[in-house]
Each structure stands twice: as structure tokens, then as C-alpha cells.
Amino acid sequence: MTRFDTKAAALALALGGAALVASAPARAQSLFNSTPAPAVEAAAEQAAGAATRATAPARKAVAKKTTAKHAARVNIVNKRGATLVELAVVSKSAANAQPQVVAAGLLAGKRKTSNLTKNGGCVYDISGEFDDESTIEVSGLDLCRDGTINLVE
């Protein structure tokens, strides 16, 4: 393989263009008026394979960005003077979602971490009641953005 072929393959890899790699053997044929040498063909195939491998992680990264997010955990912090009797969340994105109790009997000043059901999405409606007969209701809270529920007066 000549120095020009090596540089052309490296340039094709740097530019990420499969078209440049695929056209390298054709240029070699027209320059030499014969079939390309096995070393040139091997270098072109190797460069094409490397270009394919180089773009594979980029495709995976794009796939990760397009997958739906789901909240996995929620932290509940009771900053009130009353004990939390029960706190339930309901997913707004899951069809036929049932309320899930994430905390019960949480004393004043205490915190708890609870796991959420899988594939529940990010947006939840929250409802709860305290032992002083007060209630809390929040609609459309994004638990992916902030996985902490602070219960305050």
C-alpha cells in the first residue's frame, strides 16, 4: 500500500464518509488502469469496517436519547409538624395506572426513599393525608426532573 492510499483511508475515516472509502478503489483502478492490488482492496475494506464501527456508537447514543424516560425512585421529605398518614402517586402517562402508596406513617422531620413502578413515565399526580386531617394534592409533578417531594406547611 502506498503512502497516498494510507492517507486517503485515514482522511476517509476522519470525515466519516463511507462514500470516500468506497470510491478509493475506483480511483486506484483509474490511476493504474488495472485491478487494484490486494493490499489496496484490504485497506479499503479495513477502512470501511472502521468507519462502520466508528458510527455504531453514535447510533447507540442517538437511540438512548430517543428512549422514553421513567422515574425510578422518589424521595419524600416530611418538613411538616404532622405525621404523614399516607402518600400515593399515580402515573399520568401509563394507561390504567393505579395509585401506588410511596410512604405511610412518615413522622415529622423524617425522609423516605421509595421505588416507583416500572414504565410509569415522568409525570405523576400526588395525593396524601396527614394525622392533623390536612391533605395534599399536586397534579402533573415531573419526578424525572426532580425526584424529591418536599412536604411543607
Structural class: alpha+beta
- Largest sheet descriptor: 4 strands, antiparallel
Share of helix among residues? 25-40%
Estimate what percentage of residues fall within beta strands: 25-35%
Arithmetic mean pLDDT: 74
User: Can you tell me the number of structural domains?
Assistant: 2
Radius of gyration based on Cα positions: 30 Å
Oligomer: single chain
Draw up the topology in text.
Layout: H1 3-15, H2 18-32, H3 38-66, E1 73-78, E2 84-91, E3 100-106, E4 111-115, E5 123-130, E6 135-142, E7 148-151
Helix pairs in contact: 1-2, 1-3, 2-3
Q: Would you mind describing this structure in some detail?
A:
The protein is an alpha+beta fold and 153 residues long. It folds into 2 domains: 3-66, no CATH class; 73-151. The chain has 3 helices and 7 strands; from the N terminus they run αααβββββββ. The chain has a 4-stranded antiparallel β-sheet, with no helix packed on it. Strand 5 and strand 6 form a beta hairpin. Residues 17-35 have low confidence and may be disordered.
